Structure formats: structure tokens, C-alpha cells
Amino acid sequence: MPGYVYGWLVTAAVVGMTLIVLALLSPVRIRFHTFKAGSDDDVTIELKALYGLLVYSLQIPSVKFYGGLMHLQGTVSGSTAGMDVSSEKKDDIGWDKISKLVDKMKQIIQITRHLPDWVKQTAKRIQLKELSLQIKIGTGDAMWTAMATGLVWSLLTTFFGLVSQYVHVKREPAFTIAPDYKQVSFAAECLCIVQIRLVYAIFAGLHLLARAKKGKGGVKAWQNILSKA
């Protein structure tokens, strides 16, 4: 083999391995933002991977409640290396769907070997990059408003204390709870950004698959549970 051909092959192999390593070390970032004020709603979930080459987002500008159902209308969009796709989604979520989802999760936990351990191991690889929450509460009564504000503060600090035991917190959260003593009102805005390296996400998926195979019924049992209407 001529020397220059061998040199090109070595260069191509080195470049290829470098790109693979860079891809595996790239962060997978999930950004969650929600806003609620009166009748105005907005929920946005965005996933970015491979240094922004892969982007998917779900935006729900309308959340309505009627007849015991939560009506969602949103747009799912994606971008892969500059190629964009978009589609609209509508769904109604009631207690029946929520109950079925909870039942499915219970069944999966029962048949999957050491699933809680897998969750804890995966959570250790997750970084909480940012968490901010602003809430404004008004009950129409000064005493009850003050009590509600204190209760929300207690719930938030307890929740964050639990979360910080399982994930890596890169920045202290910013919580703002403001009482509205003048009227009955509720407004909230939340921003949460979490990140995990692609290599850890792949390992987590492979470990979960291995646990599912060793569980009762194997992967087929998972498929049967998730495929139920």
C-alpha cells in the first residue's frame, strides 16, 4: 500500500474517532419553561443534542379545563442538521388517562429488576443547570394569603432538598413567592434546565434494557404494557 494512502487512512481514522468521542461527550440538554397568569398559558419543552445539530421542541400555548378534562393544544417541531419538521397535536387528558398511566408505571416497576436503583444511578449523572420559579398568590384574605405563601415556601424548599440529594446542582435555585393581598389571583413562571452527557444517556438506556430483559417477561412484557390502550 502506497505511503500516502496509508497516511490518508490513518488521518480518516483519527478524525472519525475524534468525532465519535466529541459526540459521546456532547451534552443532551432539556429546557422546560412554563408560564401561567389568568387565562394565559404557555408550556415549552426543548431538547438539544449533538451541539445543537439535533433539536426538538414541544410548545403548548393553550391549556384549558372543561368537563373534568385538561385540553392540550400544541406544536411539535424538530430540526436535524438544518432540516426542520413541524406538526400540531391535540389531546384531552382526564383522570381515566392519568389512572391508566399510573397503573402502567406500577406494572413496569414490578416487572423490572431493581428499577429504583437504575433511577438513582441515572440521576447522579444529571446536572441541574438552572432552576427559577416566580409565584404570585392571592386568596382575597390577608391571613390566608400569608399562610398560603408560607406553605408554598415550605413545599418548595422541601422539594429542592430532596432533588439536590439525587442530581448535581450547578447553580442555586432562584425562588420568588410574592403575596397578593388585594385580590384573588395566581400567576407562576418556571424555568428548569437539566443536562446529561450523551454517553451517560446511552449507558443508562442500555442498562435499562438489560434490566428489562432480566425482569419477569423480559422486554416483551414492557411492550405489552405500553401498547395497552
Which SSEs are present, and which pair or pack?
Layout: H1 3-25, E1 27-37, E2 40-49, E3 54-66, E4 69-80, E5 83-94, H2 95-111, H3 115-123, E6 127-139, H4 142-163, E7 168-169, E8 174-179, E9 184-197, H5 198-214, H6 218-227
Parallel strand pairs: 6-7, 6-8
Antiparallel strand pairs: 1-2, 1-9, 2-3, 3-4, 4-5, 6-9
Helix pairs in contact: 2-6, 3-5, 5-6
Keywords:
single chain, nine-stranded mixed beta sheet, alpha+beta, 41% strand, 229 residues
Give an overview of the whole structure.
- The chain has 229 residues and is α+β, with helices and mostly antiparallel strands.
- The chain has a domain at 27-94.
- It has helices spanning 3-25, 95-111, 115-123, 142-163, 198-214, 218-227; strands at residues 27-37, 40-49, 54-66, 69-80, 83-94, 127-139, 168-169, 174-179, 184-197.
- Strands 1, 2, 3, 4, 5, 6, 7, 8 and 9 form a nine-stranded mixed β-sheet that branches.
- α2 packs antiparallel against α6 (218-227), α3 (115-123) packs antiparallel against α5 (198-214) and α5 (198-214) packs across α6 (218-227).
- The N and C termini lie far apart (60 Å).
- 5% of the residues are buried.
- The model has no long low-confidence stretch (mean pLDDT 81).
The number of helical runs is 6
Question: Span between N and C termini?
Answer: 60 Å
Low-confidence blocks of residues: none
Into which percent range does the helicity of residues fall? Answer: 40-55%
> Largest sheet, if any?
9 strands, mixed
Oligomer, anyone? single chain
The computed structural class is: alpha+beta
- Shape descriptor reads globular
Q: What portion of residues belong to β-strands?
A: 35-45%
Mean pLDDT score: 81
Rounded Rg: 23 Å
